[in-house]
Amino acid sequence: MTEQNRVAIVTGAARGIGAATAIRLAADGFAVAVIDLEEAAGKDTVEKITAAGGRAIAVGADVSNGEQVAAAVERVVAELGAPVVLVNNAGVLRDNLLFKMSESDWDTVMNVHLKGAFLMSKACQKHMVDAGYGRIVNLSSSSALGNRGQANYSAAKAGLQGFTKTLSKELGKFGITANAVAPGFIATDMTAATAERVGMGFEEFKAAAATMIPVNRVGVPDDIAHTVSFLVSEGAGFVSGQVIYVAGGPLD
Ligand code: NAP
Known about the structure:
By secondary structure, the protein is an alpha/beta fold. The protein has eight helices and seven strands; from the N terminus they run E-H-E-H-E-H-E-H-E-H-E-H-H-H-E. The structure holds NADP nicotinamide-adenine-dinucleotide phosphate.
C-alpha cells in the first residue's frame, strides 16, 4: 500500500459504529468515503474528519442496490482513488418474533446486511486485486449465535461470517484479507431503538445489559473502531477469515 492509495470505504458511516470507524480510519491516515443512504446524512462525519485535518467525502447509496453501489464506488475512485479498505457496516433491524415477522422484515434485513456486503465487496475487490492489496471487514454480531426476536438479523449476521471466510479463501492470494467483527452490546441509535421497542429507557437498558458483561459496561462505537483499525492495518496481513467478538467478555 502506497501513500497514494490509502483509500477506505465505510458503509453506514453517518452515525454509530460506522461514523466512529470512519473517523478512526481517517486519523490512521486513510482518505475515507462515508457511504450512507443519503449523502447529506454523511456530512457530519465528513466535517468531523476534515476538522481534524483528514480527507473524506460523503456518498449517498443504498448498499442493497447494485446500480447505486456501482455508481458510489466509481465516484470514490474518481474523487479519492481506488479503495484498498472496505468496511461493510451498514445495517438495519426489523426485530420480531418469528410468528409475527413479515416477509418484508426478512427481505430488508437480508438485503442490507448480506446482499449489501456482497455488492460492495464485489465492486471493491477488483480495485484491491489490481493493487495486490486489500482489507475487507464485515460487521457481524453476537446475535449470530442466536437471539430471540432476531431470526432475520441473526441469520444475516451468521451468514456474514460464512461470507467472510469464503472471501478470505478466494482473495488471499491477491494480498487481500477478510475478517468479521462481531460486536456485543454497543450504545448507538440501534440499541436505543431496541430499548424503546422493549419499553425501557435507554440508560436503564444499558445498565441492565452491563450487569451481564464481564467488563461491567456496555460497548461504545470506538471499541469497534479500534478493532477495525487493527484489522485493516498493514501489519494484520496474516489475520484472515477470522471472527472477532468484541463484547466485553466471552460469549456462550
Ligand atoms: P446505526 O446507528 O443504526 O447505524 C447504521 C447506519 O447504516 C445508519 O446510518 C443507516 O442509515 C445506515 N444504513 C442502513 N441501511 C443502509 C443501506 N441500505 N445503505 C446504506 N446505509 C444504510 O447502527 P450501529 O449500531 O452503528 O450498527 C452498525 C453495524 O454494526 C450494523 O451492521 C449492526 O448490525 C452492527 N452491530 C451493532 C451492534 C450494536 O449493539 N449497536 C451490535 C452488533 C452488531 P439511516 O440512518 O438512514 O437508516
